C-alpha cells in the first residue's frame, strides 16, 4: 500500500472499511488522505448516512388511513 | 409486568400492507413469484402469531421483520438451486471511469448534504431511496441488500452466494458509489427537489 492514495483508492477503502477490518497500513494511509481531502471527508459521512438510511428502510409509516 | 399482548390483529389490517411488502421483497428477490410467495408466507405467519404482537412497534415494522427472514430463506433456497453467476461486468471497476478521472480524482466531488438525518423522517425520501436501489444491477442489488438491509456479514454472504470476499467487497463498493450519487442527484443536490 502506498502512502498517498488517490480519491479512487481512498473511497474503495472507505467502503471496504464498512465490511471488513482494515489493516494498520490501510487505516493510516486512509487517515492521511481523508484529513487532507474534503471530498473524501464528505464521502465518508455520506456512506455512514447511507448505511443508516437503508437500515431504516422502508421508513416511517404512511399517513394513517382515514 | 409488561402489558399483555394486544389480542388479535384483524387480517384485513395486515392485508393493506401487502403492496408495500411486495415492493420490499421485489427489491431483493427481483422475481415476482418469489416475492409474492415470501409475502404470502409472511402474512400467514403474522396471522398465526398475531397474539404475540406486542404492539411495541408498528404493524408495518413487525411485518417487515418477519418478511426479512422469509426473504433470506428464499435467497438461500435459490442460491442452492441456482448459484449467482457473476460476470466480468459485475466485478470490474472499469465503469468507474464515469466517477473518477484517470488520475484518480473525482470527476464531480461529493457535495455538501447539510443535515441528512432530517430526510429520515420523510416518507418521500425513502421512496427516492427505493427508486435508487431499484436502479442497481441485479447481482449488485442482491449483495447490497443482504449486507445492508438484512445486516448479514460479508462472510455469510460469500457463503450463501458462493462468491469470493473480494468480489463481495467490489459489488458493495459499486452499490454504494451508485446509491450515493443517486441520492445526491435526486434528493440532496442543489435543485434536486426544485
What would a concise description of this structure say?
Chain A is an all-alpha fold. Chain A has one domain. Chain A has helices at 7-16, 24-36, 38-56.
Describe what this molecule looks like in 3D.
The complex is a heterodimer of chains A (66) and B (194). Chain A is mainly alpha-helical and 66 residues long. Chain A has one domain. Helix content of chain A is 64%, strand content 0%. Chain A has helices spanning 7-16, 24-36, 38-56. The longest helix of chain A is centred in the C-terminal third of the chain and has 19 residues, at 38-56. Chain B is mostly helical and 194 residues long. Chain B starts with 10 loop residues before the first helix and ends in a 6-residue tail after the last helix. Chain B contains 9 helices and no strands. Chain B has 2 domains: 11-81, Rna Polymerase Sigma Factor, Chain: A; 88-188, Orthogonal Bundle (Arc Repressor Mutant, subunit A). Chains A and B meet through helix 1 and helix 3 of A and helix 2, helix 6, helix 7 and helix 9 of B.
